[in-house]
Design a protein that fits this description.
With 195 residues, the chain is mainly α. It is built from 7 helices and no strands. The chain has a domain of 116 residues: Up-down Bundle (Four Helix Bundle (Hemerythrin (Met), subunit A)), CATH 1.20.120. The protein is globular, with a radius of gyration of 24 Å.
């Protein structure tokens, strides 16, 4: 049997160890969320370029950029779901695998196919017999991308919409989801203990 003072020290540190373990798990989740938010920001940037191309009447470029946005989203899902890189896989095969494995809901797949079809047309539209594109012609893939992007962010990654800022100190979405300042100070204290 352990002496009472040793037993007391062990029992007294158990909650502290649980706090450290919980914090380490939280820290990993926080880092993962930061990565997801960065990936979403990159994908949104590509989508914004597509919208800019539409506004400048570069309709082929808009479709091609929508296809790039689709590819970024599908690669993200593929890598998250199968934990493997998409090197060597073309968009068609990535989408096929995601559809077969039911990683994208059935009600979203027609939107994916719309973007893919129009995007392929935009990237290979060098034949003058196909006619000129106009704003009405590119509206279906733009609408489909809105649906797919909203599903990807809010349902697939479960990132809530960013609420209005309560103060000027809050600068990113993580400040709304987690009490980051408190956690940063706890993390700093724990780092000092172990360094």
């Amino acid at each position: 049997m352990l002496p009472s003072n040793v037993l007391g020290r062990c029992l007294g540190t158990a909650p502290f160890l649980l706090i450290i373990i919980d914090f380490m798990v939280y820290k990993d989740a926080y880092k993962q969320l930061e990565i997801v938010l960065q990936e979403i920001a990159q994908i949104k940037t590509i989508y914004q370029r597509a919208c800019e191309k539409k506004n400048t009447k570069d309709f082929d470029g808009c479709l091609w950029t929508l296809r790039n946005t689709l590819e970024g989203i599908c690669k993200n899902i593929y890598q998250n779901e199968f934990n493997i890189k998409t090197d060597g896989l073309d968009l068609r095969n990535i989408i096929k695998k995601l559809e077969e494995e039911k990683k994208i809901p059935k009600n979203i797949m027609p939107h994916v196919r719309t973007i893919q079809t129009f995007g392929n047309f935009g990237s290979h539209n060098s034949d003058s017999s196909t006619g000129k594109l106009n704003e009405k012609m590119i509206q279906p893939p733009l609408t489909s991308m809105e649906v797919f992007l909203n599903w990807f962010i809010s349902e697939y990654h479960e990132v809530p919409e960013k609420p209005q800022k309560a103060s000027s100190k809050q600068t990113n979405i993580l400040d709304y989801i987690f009490p980051t300042e408190l956690l940063k100070s706890i993390y700093s204290s724990i780092e000092k203990i172990f360094s």
